[in-house]
Design goal:
heterodimer; A: mainly beta; Methylamine Dehydrogenase, Chain H; B: 15 helices; about 55% helix
């Protein structure tokens, strides 16, 4: 009965967000009033990196943020925004204020319900255990985490089937001691699996050959129920390398996908990865940033019968309008340099949009120096339209990492961008005429409390949307919190979850313009309301 | 052999004339090694500087070769200056007869300074490498030399470099925008002409369409070794045009592992390798290093090779844009097999003639003219990229293989290879004819 009512509601929904021309998103920059005053700085060893991590560490539902500072100490800010209000943060000591930080990712490693943080650095990486109330303490020794002494530029985590503890992969860049011959000196990436039968990590294993990744993502690209490890590698520094994907199976050594498996030879300046099922076929598309043309990959031959997929991807960036290969505005038309990337629906029309952070590596005159960020808004036909200038986020600062999330819990995705040698920028989404939305948070018993690796599907009259809950990707930047979906004019959405390693669960109804906690142990979604 | 003996004699004579210590002689003996070290740095920079497509790389190799050669020739009694022999190269600044100089220091200084100019656009890592290389090699060059020699040599090196850079500025290739892809270009809609072959937005126009109009170095102009037209476009299966496409298709559909290895070995993709001209510079580098060649020999070989390959690319590009010929991937997909894919990435510019063939023909001709026709060598250029090594009975055999690699790779028809090699051999004669040695 409820399902039938939902269907009627879907049919009755207006057509404002089903139009061919997308609603133009609007952002207002609140950098100067936000309380965030962080700058990512540093010479050669900080030419890459510059990430941020957004997560709720005090239980108020609002995402707090940690921003890497490069040579300078990182800065942590607690979110003081009111629902729908101006973005307001307060700097606070957290224990996360490390120098030499390139980026960070939130993850509840020990499954205690309090977010921990993996800090990537030039030097030793550090896992920080959350103690509550946004305080953290070093846990490398307690958890057996091997911090190494590399130049770390990528991270991804997954819970392999049956494990209570995550498997963490760290991507390392070149040997920073090689002054005369740095090229070809990519240092080994490593993966740490849980220690059998105990909490904590086992000894790290090298993921070699290693080709200087600037992004990694554990992702279930073929709906096998198991995530493989995709890497975006920087061709500037490897010799004989290419893009990589490692097959990661429980109890087995990681194994590279090869040409014989169908893996296609691709060599780009891989800098960031994000995934989203854009075409609704059940298989994710992957956007990979680079210099000049960026890539949008889709499975070349997606199985129609649910059979095994080959890891052969084709590039559809051009027909989809997302090459973003050079500045779309201004006088500087040299090739672009792209870093952080994420899919988020910024106008709530039910279609995922793409944000790309842009910025010159470091005074490379063959590439654009004034390189505006991109906000590629998806149209109903599946193509994307550049709207960063109209939306007010086409900053030409030297961008690196970033976070797209709803900082003030008004249902609109806000934007934080980390810049090199310039202040981190913060924009509040104020899009007039934006559609309805839902935001969900997953929880389940066991070690993987936040259901990393789950797929969330949302159905409305506008169609099907689906995204994977991941820990990794982007450019040294991660987010953990509410999963946002725009739903256009729909008043409700039908939501179901494919919990990690399992089949799809039963659909649940979530009302528009509200927050819902989806607990695996409960049959219905639980509404949640911010307390300010 | 004669050149080596002459070089050695010159070094001894110079040391005796100047009455310098044995350490100067040692520094001069190290000159060849220092110059080769700079070439190693340049090979890395070519790979890691975004504007360095093969034609642009060949231009840098030519100017750097001339600069190093003139560094030595400017104080030599046996090497002849190239002033008046190369197009546009008029009087270069002379050394001060009242001062004492070190050829090795001048060469180091010229290379350090010129490399910074030619690779000024490289990224932060390249900048760091240049600075580290300058520091290290300067130390090696200057070791134990008297202060007046160092001072005079460094000053002269800067002066000579400035003159070479000044000469380079108006050759048509000094400014590369958008990595060589023009902002506007009308792609022909006529069948048989080049059309874009990839989904990369930047490459929807062809690379460096005016490069063939650049001032050449030793040959009179880009049109000096013109080529006959390639087969006329036809969709008739009995036509010569169709036959050449069918040959590429048939060969690539039955590639043997050895042919795949050959295609990959000579692929020499820009930004993923030191490019085709860099490949031949690497071959020469290893040859010179193996025989511990002195500064004179190293400078002369690199100069002739650089000039010949730069002229090769100018001549090749002149013909490419004269004929604006279609690539195999376009033809085969349209006429033979829509699902066919070449082994190699099709370069984003017209097909005829093959650039790798032209410059390999030119390079092999130059090296053959210096060392003879039967120099067997092992090419280890790509070992670090996991492509192994290949052995050749002669430079000509290597050039022929480089040419055929383009058919195995599915990116060239046979006429482009055969005519390219021939064009290269023709163009090389101008570099070979440069007078570098004074009469005995």
């Amino acid at each position: 009965m409820r399902r039938a009512a939902l269907a009627l509601l879907m049919l009755a929904a207006g057509q404002a967000h089903a139009a061919d021309t997308p609603v133009v998103p609007a952002f207002t920059e609140e950098t100067k009033t936000s309380g965030i005053d962080s700058v990512y700085t540093g010479q050669w060893q900080y030419m890459v990196g510059g990430g941020a991590a957004a997560f709720d560490c005090n239980g108020d539902g609002f995402e707090d943020v940690l921003i890497a500072g490069g040579e300078m100490p990182a800065a942590f800010y607690v979110n003081r925004s009111a629902r729908g209000g101006a973005l307001t943060f307060a700097k606070q000591q957290s224990g996360l204020e490390f120098d030499a930080m390139t980026g960070a990712y939130p993850i509840d490693i020990d499954g205690d319900g309090i977010m921990d943080v993996v800090v990537l650095r030039v030097g030793e990486n550090i896992v920080m255990k959350g103690k509550g109330d946004c305080q953290f303490t070093r846990a490398n020794e307690d958890w057996g985490f091997a911090g190494g002494d590399g130049w770390s530029t990528a991270y991804a985590a997954t819970w392999e089937k049956g494990n209570q503890w995550p498997t963490i992969a760290i991507g390392n860049y070149i040997d920073r001691a090689q002054e005369l011959e740095p090229w070809g000196s990519c240092t080994p990436n490593v993966m740490q699996r849980p220690k059998p039968g105990a909490k904590g990590f086992d000894a790290p294993v090298a993921l070699t050959p290693s080709y200087c990744p600037l992004s990694m993502l554990f992702t279930d690209w073929n709906n096998s129920g198991t995530a493989d490890l995709r890497m975006a590698n920087d061709r500037e520094y490897y010799e004989g390398g290419q893009e990589q994907m490692w097959q990661v199976r429980p109890g087995q050594p990681p194994k590279l996908y090869t040409k014989e498996d169908g893996w296609a030879y691709l060599r780009i300046w891989g800098m960031g990865i994000a995934g989203y099922d854009l075409d609704g076929d059940g298989y994710q598309e992957y956007a990979i940033t680079s210099m000049a043309d960026n890539k949008l990959q889709t499975l070349k031959e997606p199985p129609k019968d649910g059979g095994a997929a080959k890891p052969t991807f084709k590039d559809v960036a051009w027909p989809k309008g997302v090459t973003a290969h050079r500045p779309f505005t201004g006088d500087d038309l040299k090739p672009s340099t792209a870093w952080h990337i994420d899919f988020q629906d910024v106008n709530n029309d039910g279609l995922a949009d793409i944000f790309i952070a842009k910025g010159n590596v470091s005074e490379m005159p063959d590439f654009a120096m004034k390189d505006p960020n991109n906000l590629l808004v998806q149209a109903r036909d599946g193509t994307f339209i550049e709207m960063a200038d109209k939306a007010g986020v086409a900053s030409t600062e030297t961008a690196r990492g970033g976070v797209l999330t709803d900082f003030n819990l008004d249902g609109l995705v806000d934007l934080l961008v980390v810049n090199r040698y310039a202040p981190t920028q913060l924009w509040r989404n104020v899009t007039p005429g934006a559609g309805n939305w839902i935001e969900v948070k997953l929880q389940q018993p066991g070690g993987n409390v936040n259901a990393i690796g789950a797929m969330v599907e949302v159905k409305t009259e506008l169609g099907r949307q689906a995204r994977e809950v991941v820990s990794g990707g982007g450019h040294v930047s991660g987010q953990s919190g509410w999963v946002h979906f725009g739903i256009g004019d729909a008043k409700q959405a039908e939501v179901r979850v494919r919990w990690p390693g399992e089949d799809w669960g039963k659909p649940m109804t979530v009302d528009a313009n509200g927050f819902a906690v989806l607990d695996k142990a409960k049959a219905a979604a639980e509404a949640w309301t911010p307390n300010r | 052999m004669m050149m080596t003996r002459r070089s050695a004699l010159k070094g001894v004579a110079a040391a005796a004339l100047l009455g310098l210590s044995g350490r100067l002689a040692l520094a001069e003996d190290n000159g060849g090694a220092i110059l080769r070290q700079w070439y190693k740095v340049v090979l890395m920079l070519v790979r890691h500087t975004a504007t360095y497509s093969p034609p642009v790389a060949s231009r840098a190799f030519a100017y750097l070769g001339v600069a190093a050669y003139q560094a030595v020739a400017s104080g030599s009694t046996s090497l002849v200056s190239l002033e008046g022999q190369l197009n546009g190269l008029k009087a270069l600044p002379p050394r001060d007869p009242a001062k004492r100089y070190s050829d090795a220091v001048i060469t180091h200084c010229v290379m350090a300074s010129a490399v910074k100019t030619f690779f000024g656009n490289t990224g932060p890592t390249g900048q760091r490498v240049m600075a580290a290389a300058e520091k290290k090699l300067k130390g090696a060059a200057l070791q134990g030399l008297p202060g007046d020699v160092v001072e005079a040599s460094l000053a002269y090196g800067e002066t000579l470099k400035a003159a070479i850079i000044d000469w380079s500025k108006d050759d048509g290739g000094a400014v590369i925008e958008n990595m060589g892809f023009p902002m506007a270009y009308d792609v022909s809609k006529e069948p048989g002409h080049w059309v874009p072959t990839s989904a990369i937005r930047q490459q929807q126009v062809p690379l460096l369409p005016t490069w063939g109009q650049n001032r050449s170095f030793a040959m009179p102009s880009g049109a000096s070794c013109g080529l006959p037209p390639p087969p006329t476009y036809s969709e008739d299966p009995s036509s010569e045009f169709y036959a050449q496409a069918k040959e590429v298709y048939d060969v690539t559909m039955r590639l043997m592992p050895e042919q795949v290895a050959i295609a990959r070995f000579w692929s020499d993709d820009p930004m993923l390798s030191f490019t085709p001209p860099g490949h031949w510079i690497a071959i020469a580098h290893d040859l010179l290093a193996e025989k511990k060649a002195g500064l004179d020999e190293t400078a002369e070989v690199m100069m002739r090779l650089g000039v010949a390959m730069a002229d090769g690319f100018i001549g090749c590009w002149n013909a490419k844009y004269q004929y604006d010929y279609v690539r195999p991937v376009t033809v085969i997909k349209k006429l033979i097999d829509a699902k066919w894919e070449p082994l190699l990435i099709t370069p984003p510019f017209p097909e005829y003639p093959s650039g790798h063939s032209t410059e390999s023909g030119a390079a092999a001709a130059v090296l053959t003219s210096i060392y003879g026709d039967n120099v067997a060598f092992t090419d280890r250029s790509h070992v670090r990229d996991g492509l192994g090594e290949r052995k050749f009975a002669s430079f000509t055999a290597a050039a022929d293989e480089a040419g055929m690699s383009r058919m195995y790779g599915g990116i060239h028809f046979r006429p482009a290879i055969e005519q390219g090699l021939e064009q290269g051999r023709c163009i090389a004669q101008f570099a070979i004819a440069l007078r570098t040695r004074s009469a005995a």
